[in-house]
């Protein structure tokens, strides 16, 4: 699987990424964690998505512990980190309120901890995890410049930002992506300008929860059942699994998203990778959109 550039000279990432959000909940021992990493990479999924807060601030360390068993794997993978949230957790007893913090001091300290936990000397990509109403764009840009100059972070982006919030920070510092939630049941970015902006800037979005955390296949509400029917119908025509069609629906977008698969099941990664060989035509794609919306396109 060839790597793709998110934009503006990098970073190179695999077109399907692996998410470590639930790593702490999977109950893997260190050898099982290493095997999961190896199996992802054997499929060509070499980009791993992290955040400092995942697993109550434990997931990065669990990943790093496994990576330490085969440190040469680091040369062939890309590590994405996120910072900017102060979550309430036993590992952060000084956090009295769940809140956002995009200050230079917090971003810098978060990166230092992430590097230590992941047992690496740099992040390939750092994202501001959530929009912060108190964010000073000049301060963040200066922090990014220092982190890049120190060789600790190579590229920068954001997550969950609106188009105008992205513009604000991008005006001060060149960003390479906006990581957003998108799937047939969460279609706002298709119509609110988020994807239009990224396509205009020739930047690829990263997509978290591309199958709605599994609810796309297990939900029982009317909209989800309609989508399930459409996914099954399109999957039969293409001879693949419905999950593969769910990923192909995203990959069909001209902004060229990079979906993040946050599953312990290697079969789920295979279904996502298989979507790279499936191209939906406009009627296929629209059939799924209309099932989710409950009406024809205007």
For the structure shown, list the relevant keywords.
two-stranded antiparallel sheet; globular; 12 strands; 13% strand; TIM Barrel; 13 helices
Per CATH, the class reads Alpha Beta
Q: Looking at the structure, what is the overall shape?
A: globular
Instruction: Count the beta strands.
Output: 12
Low-confidence stretches: none
Question: What is the H/E string?
Answer: EEEHEHHEEEHEHEHEHHEHHHEHH
| Helix residue percentage | 40-55%
Query: Between the first and last Cα atoms, what is the distance in angstroms?
Result: 38 Å
Domain count: 1
CATH architecture type: Alpha-Beta Barrel
Q: Give the quaternary arrangement of the chains.
A: single chain
Largest sheet: 8 strands, parallel, barrel
Strand content: 5-15%
* CATH fold-level name: TIM Barrel
Radius of gyration: 19 Å
Mean pLDDT: 97
Task: List the total number of helices.
Answer: 13
CATH superfamily: NADP-dependent oxidoreductase domain
Strand order of the largest sheet: 3-4-5-8-9-10-11-12
Which class do the helix and strand fractions yield?
Answer: alpha/beta
Account of the 3D structure:
The chain is α/β, with parallel strands linked by helices. It contains 13 helices and twelve strands. The strands form three sheets. Strands 3-4-5-8-9-10-11-12 form an eight-stranded parallel barrel. It has a two-stranded antiparallel ribbon with strand order 1-2. The radius of gyration is 19 Å and the shape is globular. The N and C termini lie far apart (38 Å). The model has no long low-confidence stretch (mean pLDDT 97).
């Amino acid at each position: 699987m060839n790597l793709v550039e998110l934009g503006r000279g990098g970073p190179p990432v695999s077109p399907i990424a692996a998410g470590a959000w639930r790593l702490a909940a999977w109950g893997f021992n260190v050898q099982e964690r290493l095997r999961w990493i190896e199996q992802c990479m054997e499929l060509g999924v070499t980009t791993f998505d992290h955040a400092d807060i995942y697993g109550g601030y434990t997931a990065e360390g669990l990943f790093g512990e496994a990576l330490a068993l085969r440190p040469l794997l680091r040369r062939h993978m890309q590590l994405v980190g996120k910072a900017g949230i102060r979550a309430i957790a036993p590992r952060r007893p000084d956090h009295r309120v769940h809140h956002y913090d995009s200050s230079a001091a917090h971003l810098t300290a978060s990166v230092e901890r992430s590097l230590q936990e992941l047992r690496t000397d740099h992040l390939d990509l750092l994202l501001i995890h959530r929009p912060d109403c108190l964010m000073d764009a000049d301060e963040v840009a200066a922090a990014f410049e220092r982190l890049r100059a120190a060789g600790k972070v190579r590229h920068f982006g954001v997550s969950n930002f609106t188009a105008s919030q992205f513009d604000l920070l991008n005006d001060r510092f060149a960003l390479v992506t906006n990581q957003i939630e998108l799937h047939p049941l969460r279609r706002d970015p298709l119509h609110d300008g988020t994807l239009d902006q990224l396509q205009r800037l020739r930047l690829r979005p990263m997509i978290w929860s591309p199958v709605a955390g599994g609810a796309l296949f297990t939900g029982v509400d009317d909209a989800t059942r309609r989508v399930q029917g459409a996914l099954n119908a399109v999957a039969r025509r293409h001879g693949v699994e419905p999950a593969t069609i769910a990923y192909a629906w995203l990959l069909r977008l001209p902004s060229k998203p990079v979906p993040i698969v946050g599953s312990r099941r290697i079969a789920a990664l295979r279904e996502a990778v298989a979507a790279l060989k499936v191209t939906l035509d406009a009627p296929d794609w629209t059939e799924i959109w209309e099932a989710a919306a409950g009406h024809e396109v205007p």
